[in-house]
Amino acid sequence: MKIREAVKEDMPQVLELIKELAVFEKEPDAVEISVADLEREGFGKNPLFTCFVAESENGIVGAALIYFRFSTWKGRTLHLEDLIVQESERGKGIGEALYKEVMQFAYDRGLKRVAWDVLDWNKGAIRFYERSGADILKTWRVVHMDEKGLKNYIEKSNVK
């Protein structure tokens, strides 16, 4: 198995992993992006993300998608959007290898923090992250507003 930075041609397999993750997270119909979206946003003049893939003799079996953020407290930080390993390939150290690649990427750039979300019921991932030395914040809540919420808020408020 080899960990490497993804290339544009990997995006069809990466999208399949994203869809598999959505099923795992009990949101099978939530994925709206396309291969074209991934190719455009990740490989243009100003890419919005970096993706690492785990490649074995079976093809791409895992991926980690990251992007830079800015913290008013820390400065430039990194967000780990998804760390995905095909269900049939879990338990083989692939997730840990991808995780290490992400942490090395952040460390090599002198970043002050890597942040990500984990579902409260994903006990295996939580144990892994805690063993790695990550802090699972108990007092912070993830907040999202989807497209419908944005539309409703703007239409019902006097915000211009």
Automatic annotation (TrEMBL):
<feature type="domain" description="N-acetyltransferase">
    <location>
        <begin position="1"/>
        <end position="155"/>
    </location>
</feature>
<protein>
    <submittedName>
        <fullName>GNAT family acetyltransferase</fullName>
    </submittedName>
</protein>
<dbReference type="InterPro" id="IPR016181">
    <property type="entry name" value="Acyl_CoA_acyltransferase"/>
</dbReference>
<dbReference type="Pfam" id="PF00583">
    <property type="entry name" value="Acetyltransf_1"/>
</dbReference>
<dbReference type="InterPro" id="IPR051016">
    <property type="entry name" value="Diverse_Substrate_AcTransf"/>
</dbReference>
<keyword id="KW-0808">Transferase</keyword>
<keyword id="KW-0012">Acyltransferase</keyword>
<dbReference type="InterPro" id="IPR000182">
    <property type="entry name" value="GNAT_dom"/>
</dbReference>
<comment type="similarity">
    <text>Belongs to the acetyltransferase family.</text>
</comment>
<dbReference type="GO" id="GO:0008080">
    <property type="term" value="F:N-acetyltransferase activity"/>
</dbReference>
